[in-house]
Design goal:
single chain; DNA polymerase, domain 1; Rossmann fold; 2 domains; two-stranded parallel ribbon; 10 helices; globular; HAD_sf
């Protein structure tokens, strides 16, 4: 039976969601390290088998398809906003992602983002929300946790960063937040997030402007 466009959309969503399950299940004390690239490849192969599509692609083609994550388009405000953050306040901008270093380097280049530092879970051999990632990032930057602000579109990420002593900046993005607005955790986050950029503002550009206004 041939798959239609809706089927492939569900397949893509399942593939996108699978990496979160893989990283959440990872235990540094128990499991051998796998990069996010490896998770993406292995999860794609497993999904193809689960959907009865094993053999549709060769192993080399599966490997090539799994690298599509290296060519994601950034949010439209990202490049200009990051440049404004660096220019206006002289801030050091850095990633802190579950993506591996090679993935982050390609995304940075592909999107012309211009991050000063590319910090990755790969560096710390632990995935967010493990405290080793947030504390390790502060250490790599030569700063105390309280001198670092975590910027994210996921409140769970910010909650974990806050528990490690980092400041928190929430940038709303369409269809990114796992907590619904009715969720008590979401309502409580309104009280503890240090700076909240709404979806109707201009993302990182608005963040740079808001920080400039605070100076």
């Amino acid at each position: 039976e041939r798959l239609g466009a809706d089927d492939w959309a569900r397949f893509a969503r399942a593939w996108g969601d699978s990496y979160g399950a893989s990283t959440r299940a990872f235990d540094p004390a128990r499991d051998a390290w796998k990069t996010l690239d490896e998770h993406h490849r292995d999860n794609l192969a497993a999904l193809l088998r689960g959907w009865g599509l094993d053999g549709l692609y060769t192993p080399a083609e599966v490997e090539s398809l799994s690298m599509v994550w290296h060519r994601l388009r950034p949010w439209p405000d990202a490049s200009d906003g990051l440049a404004a953050l660096a220019a206006g306040r002289g801030l050091t901008t850095a990633t802190l992602s579950n993506g591996n270093v090679a993935l982050l380097r390609d995304l940075d280049d592909f999107g012309s983002l211009g991050f000063h530092r590319l910090l990755s879970a790969e560096t710390f051999r632990a995935y967010k929300p493990n405290p080793a990632t947030y504390l390790g990032a502060a250490r790599e930057l030569g700063l105390e946790p309280s001198e670092v602000a975590m910027v994210a579109a996921h409140l769970g990420d910010l909650q974990a960063a806050r528990s490690c002593g980092l400041r928190t900046i929430y940038v709303e993005r369409p269809q990114e937040e796992a907590w619904s607005e009715d969720d008590e955790r979401y309502q409580q986050a309104r009280e503890w997030v240090d700076l909240w950029i709404s979806e109707h503002e201009d993302g990182f550009v608005a963040l740079a402007r808001r920080l400039q206004d605070l100076s």
